[in-house]
Amino acid sequence: MLDLKFIRENPDVVRWAIQVKNIILDFDKLLALDAEVRSTRHKSEQLAAQRRRLADQFRTAAPEQQQNLGEQSRQLAAELKVLGEELARLEGQLGELMLLVPNVPDKSAPVGPDAESNVVVARWGEPPQFDFPIKDHVDLAQRNNWVDLKRVTEVCGNRTYCLKNRLAQLEFVLLTMTMQRMVGEGFTLLTVPSIAREAAFVGTGHFPTGRTEVYELPEDSLFLSGTAEIVLNSLHSGEILESLEQPILYAGVSPCFRREAGSAGRDVRGLLRVHQFFKVEQYVICENNAATSRYWHDRLLKIATDIVESLELPYQVIECSTGDMGAGKVRMHDIEVWVPSLGTYRETHSCSTLHDWQARRANIRYRDADRKVQFAHTLNNTALATPRILVPLLENNQTAEGRLRLPSVLRPYFNGDEYL
Question: Which residues have CB under 8 Å from 82's CB, separation 6+?
Answer without folding.
Answer: none
